[in-house]
């Protein structure tokens, strides 16, 4: 990041001159709390913006941090807002905004992960990302490793606190082999990494990962994933395999049924066996089997 960032001064800035460069969705309850607090006691901390000149000479500002406070002011009918003005580049403003959101940890898991990945894509190492966000370097390294493996389902579970990061890494390290995955779970349990509800959650996540894939239902921005040719091919291949599995199971069931029908025909061909069943009141079969064992559907 550019180190020539200048210390800012606080000014009253027209709200309609501020552009949000890194917008994010916000929980309504949290937003209402922000509005209520500002309405009751005012703005405790100014937002941060960086100025930009426009072709028509109108002064504009890019929002660096404070989107919730800005929206709250606008909803209260205010036209200006206290803002600390700093001079940074567009890239630095965007990075500062990402780091601010991640450091506060008030964003949704998907947004947090998207922010970490965006910081890395901007060229920052896991150590620098950790310094900027207040997260540990080992956590950043683990999350990035899971993201690179496409393990969105696991990484979201980690951020939500459903399973610990080291357990998720153990699961990934086991690959796709069911036996190895179960061994990893056993090791995690015995070492204390997974206990109680977390162990149950881990098993559920592994099952969904196996049946639904590593990617979550949403992409890292929290919006529905765009349909692409490759995603359609993967979906088609998954459905083909599912159908083949159903056919194999049906064929196996049919073979067993044919064996049962054949055995019953031989047994009911024995008059002594039939007389014994009659004596015990057992000389009937379910309609489905009876129609296949006897042409008339009942014992002679």
UniProtKB/TrEMBL annotation:
Gene3D superfamilies linked to this entry: 1.10.10.2830, 3.90.1530.30
Domain ParB-like N-terminal: 11-102
Pfam families in the record: ParB_N, RepB
GO molecular function: DNA binding
Gene Ontology biological-process annotations: chromosome segregation
Family matches, as InterPro entries: Chromosome_partition/occlusion, ParB/RepB/Spo0J, ParB/Sulfiredoxin_sf, ParB_N, Plasmid_RepB
One GO CC annotation: chromosome
Family: Belongs to the ParB family.
Official protein name in the record: Nucleoid occlusion protein
Gene that encodes the chain: noc_2
